[in-house]
Amino acid sequence: MTLIIRDVLLNPPTWFSSFRDLTLYCHVFLRIDCVIETEDADPYYRWIKWRGGMDFVEDFVRPGSERGLRLDVDRRHPPMVVTDRIAPENMQRLLIQIQSAHGT
């Protein structure tokens, strides 16, 4: 399975450490490939790479080109988990929803 993370969820109010924790957990424990969906990968790649966030991100993809579970700010294409940010206060809820969709 693939977790498709929308690019706007990399921006504040998302905590970068929580983003990294989420991708680490999904990659290591759930065996899910994490990708970032964006029209323009270059600025996101540079920002994430410099902070060490590419360790558990497989690739950048164009919108609509990948199938899988979406982590997004609004309901567009099911299946999905909707959130306004990735932060310590909602990590447990996000992980539970991802695990549930993954079937573990």
Folded structure, characterized:
The protein is of the alpha/beta class. The chain has one domain. Helix content is 34%, strand content 19%. It contains three helices and five strands; from the N terminus they run βαβαβββα. The protein has a five-stranded parallel beta sheet with strand order 3-2-1-4-5. The chain starts with a strand and ends with a helix.
Give the strand order, joined by hyphens, for the main sheet: 3-2-1-4-5
**What is the general shape?**
globular
Q: Please indicate the percent range of residues in DSSP E strands (runs of 2 or more).
A: 15-25%
If you compute it from the alpha carbons, what radius of gyration comes out, rounded to the nearest whole angstrom? 12 Å
Helix content: 25-40%
Count of β-strands: 5
Low-pLDDT stretches are: none
- What is the overall number of helices? 3
The structural domain count equals 1
Query: How can the largest sheet be summarized?
Result: 5 strands, parallel
How would you summarize the topology of this molecule?
Blueprint: E1 2-6, H1 16-28, E2 33-37, H2 41-50, E3 59-61, E4 69-72, E5 80-82, H3 91-102
Parallel strand pairs: 1-2, 1-4, 2-3, 4-5
Helix pairs in contact: 1-3
What's this model, at a glance?
By secondary structure, this protein is α/β, with parallel strands linked by helices. It is 34% helix and 19% strand.
